[in-house]
Amino acid sequence: MPNAKPKPSLDADIAPFWEAAKKHEFVLMRCKKCGAWYFPAAYCRFHDNEPLFGNMEWAKASGRGKVFSYNVSYRAFNPAFAGDLPYVYALIELEEGPLISSNVTGCPVETVKVGMPVELVWEDNPDGYPLPKFRPD
């Protein structure tokens, strides 16, 4: 398929995130000992960890946050994204604490601001992997 958008990178560490996404569930990695949240999958930085993520779990997250940083793209560096121009590529600081990179949609690009509250929306794709995007809250 010409100009198909790239699929997410899949490995054993991030596969549970994408499996949840297929059901439009937003999950982050959380420490079962202290409750700290992480994305992508990581060991807890606040104490010793059990092997193989033993003290970590994928847990449902709120999907709410705020724009931490962003840029507006007026040029597609991959032809598959030319139809999306202009678009906002942003770092979203999630309510739980981690940062996630995504797009801000559902508003004019010039209205996006640092600190703007946003909420998760899913963009379904023919490849079966919905993408987490964010819109103004």
Description:
- The protein has 137 residues and is mainly β.
- The chain folds into two domains: 10-61, no CATH class; 62-137, Beta Barrel (OB fold (Dihydrolipoamide Acetyltransferase, E2P)), CATH 2.40.50.
- The protein has one helix at 15-21, and strands spanning 27-31, 37-38, 56-60, 64-73, 87-94, 99-104, 117-123, 131-136.
- The strands form two sheets. A five-stranded antiparallel beta sheet has the order 6-5-4-7-8, with no helix packed on it.
- 16% of the residues are buried.
- The model has no long low-confidence stretch (mean pLDDT 93).
Strand portion = 35-45%
pLDDT < 50 runs, ≥5 residues: none
CATH architecture of the largest domain: Beta Barrel
Count of DSSP E strands? 8
Number of domains: 2
- Work out the radius of gyration: 16 Å
Average pLDDT, to the nearest integer? 93
| Structural class designation | mainly beta
Helix content: under 10%
CATH domain class name of the largest domain: Mainly Beta
Which descriptors would you attach to this protein?
OB fold (Dihydrolipoamide Acetyltransferase, E2P); mainly beta; 5-stranded antiparallel beta sheet; single chain; 8 strands; 3-stranded antiparallel beta sheet; 137 residues
List the helices and strands and how they pair.
Blueprint: H1 15-21, E1 27-31, E2 37-38, E3 56-60, E4 64-73, E5 87-94, E6 99-104, E7 117-123, E8 131-136
Antiparallel strand pairs: 1-2, 1-3, 4-5, 4-7, 5-6, 7-8
Could you write a compact summary of the structure shown?
By secondary structure, the protein is mostly beta strands.
